[in-house]
Amino acid sequence: MAVIQLTDLQLQNKRVLIRTDLNVPLDGTKITNDRRIRATLPTIELALDRGAGVLVVSHLGRPKTGVDNAHLSLQPVADCLRVLLKRPVELIKEWHSGLDVNAGEVKLLENIRFHSGETKNDPELARSLASLCDVYVNDAFGTAHRAHASTHGIVKYATESCAGMLLAAEIEALEQALANPKRPLVAVLGGSKISGKLEVLHNLKSLADKLLVGGGMANTLLLATGVNVGNSLVEKELINDAKAILEAAEIPLPVDVMTSESIDAESHAFLRLTDCIPSHEAIVDVGPETARQYAKTIAEAGTVIWNGPMGIFEIQQFAEGTRQVANAIANTNAYTLAGGGDTIAAIEQFDISHRLDYISTGGGAFLEFIEGKQLPGIEVLQRDS
């Protein structure tokens, strides 16, 4: 996928507006994980090094227009950027009447979703944003699947538009895994529900050589084969879809699972064969034999795409299956690509981030790219030839 990149453009003495994804988790005004901020630093620093003045725009949370949203202000992000960049970073709340930024300066616009026109892709908001800059840069892969004013509409009015270093790296990593993967391609899919990943399963069943499933989606697939899954989380309304997927692709399902009578930190986990699950117990993890089989398949892979945990890994006694699969992915010689909020949380919990080839910053965008969809924020940046 050919997109214009920031490295292709002249930036000396130009005003560069960078759309980033700084939607970080907060505890009050304290940032609890600055990974997304650090991920976009190379793009900001490149623009500064090439003599540009930089305006940064991002959203934070889902504020309601017209409501006091002080708790979703980007001031904590501005403070964090100030420390990481080692230079002043001013938070700008009013910019519609124009805004100057000189070479070497960095200014952060207040939460763009405070404006109702952002999510509506309002042309007036897009035009106002474009008027602030000479070069527009999209570096927010996490929002690339949304046609918003600051990710899509602005390109129509900006003098020059391009992809930032993070967005370009995301595209390259996903294309390496999907367009021309080293075989066999193994997709590891988990998470609580199958509903959000039906299209992923449909697309991957023809692309991947092996599909490995866990979590709630595996429960629904097991139920579709006639297995009594007890009190497990399932989506009964999707049984026919699950059956269609199983008929179209060879998907190995868990042969053993861990179950529990209740989902809390004090509960005991029981090892069960999948055809011996008591009606009052719920599946909380894949079992050790399933994890061993999955690990063997992963070890033989040429490429691994991972999205979703194998169980309720946040609770220690329900985490072993996810830990074993995560370590197998970290230990393989294959090209490894992981993405999604719960997946990243598991990666951090098991401390394997340095052993994976690429960790995507996107959640919904990551899944939609794997589904084979065109992402509006990327499509609008593509070269004509």
Count of DSSP-assigned helices: 12
Q: Please write the string of helix (H) and strand (E) elements.
A: EEEHEHEEHEEHEHEHHEEEHEHEHEHH
- Structural class comes to alpha/beta
Major β-sheet, in short?
6 strands, parallel
**Residue share in helices?**
25-40%
Backbone shape: elongated
As a percent range, the share of strand residues is: 15-25%
Strand arrangement within the widest β-sheet reads 5-6-4-1-7-8
Number of strands: 16
Mean pLDDT score, rounded? 94
Distance between the termini: 10 Å
Radius of gyration: 23 Å
Ranges where pLDDT stays below 50 over 5 or more residues in a row are none
Write the layout of secondary structure elements.
Layout: E1 15-19, E2 26-27, E3 30-31, H1 35-49, E4 53-57, H2 75-85, E5 89-92, E6 106-109, H3 123-130, E7 135-138, E8 160-163, H4 165-178, E9 185-189, H5 198-207, E10 210-213, H6 215-224, H7 239-248, E11 256-260, E12 270-273, E13 282-286, H8 288-299, E14 303-307, H9 320-331, E15 335-338, H10 341-349, E16 358-359, H11 364-371, H12 376-379
Parallel strand pairs: 1-4, 1-7, 4-6, 5-6, 7-8, 9-10, 9-14, 14-15, 15-16
Antiparallel strand pairs: 2-3, 11-12, 11-13
Helix pairs in contact: 1-2, 5-7, 5-11, 6-7, 8-9
